[in-house]
Design goal:
By secondary structure, this protein is of the alpha/beta class. It folds into 4 domains: about 120 residues, Rossmann fold, CATH 3.40.50; about 60 residues, no CATH class; about 160 residues, Rossmann fold; about 60 residues, 2-Layer Sandwich (Alpha-Beta Plaits). It contains 14 helices and 15 strands. A 7-stranded mixed sheet has the order 6-7-5-8-9-11-10, sandwiched between helices.
Length: about 425
Amino acid sequence: MELFDRQKDAVGQGERTLLVYVELPSTRNIHNAKSEFKELAESSGLDIIDSIQVNRNSAKAQYYIGTGKVDEIAQMVKELELDLVIFSPELSPSQERNLEKILECQVMDRTGLILDIFALRANSFEGKLQVELAQLRHLSTRLVRGWTHLERQKGGIGMRGPGETQLETDKRLIAVRIKNITKRLDKVHKQRDLGRKSRTKNELPMIALAGYTNAGKSTLFNTLTNAQVFANDQLFATLDSTIRRVMLPASGEAVIADTVGFIQDLPHDLVDAFKSTLEETKRSNVLLHIVDAADEYNIEKIGQVEKIINEIGASKIPTILVMNKIDCMEESVKPRLDRDESGRVYRVWISSKTGEGIDLLYLALAEQLSGMMTRAKIELDVMSAYIRSEIHNIGYIHNEKVDDFGRWILEINVTHHYLSKLLNKKGVKLLWEQSPK
């Protein structure tokens, strides 16, 4: 389609790139903003030739930065034979167009870069649709009258066209494509809702992982579920939401959802496009906020994640801070639980890579999910004694004994769902059940 052949936001890997970091008074207190901007560009596979920092007290309307700096950058583009210049602040469509005209190369801002990385990493059908939707919404704001040579509103015999300019055609094509993608996503969302309703009906606890990108969410997800979700030391290594059932010690069967990583000033188009994926976070019983404990700027990143969690309406979900990567910290830190004044676990120190502290995380989850648990006493006949080993493996048994007839009497603590599954097994009898107050 002609429109998408002209889309400027997509960049090719290996393009010779200049990074322009613009520091304003509002960004001077964000210590890792510059390094994160560079890391984003490197994550997209671009060939970073050079970088420049511009300090300003306010943005200029024409180029965002001053004309002197623009001339300096234009000289660098010419001397270094650059293909692409990326600016850290969000540029207006007119600023982007003005810069491209004077620099004579492609210009992109940080939002466009993040969209490009998302497009590069999305693998699932839903993920690709979500990214394309975000890209189209972003592109629709950047359509300008740059195609006047293609206008088809002409007068005279043989020059009459369909009566719309190329700009109007572009807008119409984008609107049609957005409508089609939205319909397809609605179908995917309905399927996701069916799965969510099924889990709710079965009273399965939902645990959602959230956190700053590259905090180790996917590695922890793999550790908890024995899954093989792609995990790598890079920003936005995985985008596609993954859900797995898992049997947790002392908690029973649960569902764990790995969600997209967050970043400071995550583009609103992406937040809107990924709302269905983030819905798993909003509907969870427990939210594990994964933090890179070895990151010197983790306090700022915790604030950024909490801001987005609040934005998607998940701020009231019980949350446990999971301080991950303790094996990477300069000072030796042992796994531990931190409790607040009321005795509730609010923070756990672990290493998802080495497995240190995972047992403490299981304990914290068991305490947090205790409201979904029930205490019961069951009887296993002689032929069903094998079930005892199954229950032992997940640590539910508080007391056990064998009566005079060789039957096992077990006092256990399980979820309502798991208890119902046990009672459907042959040779299992419920003696009493008592849900916690």
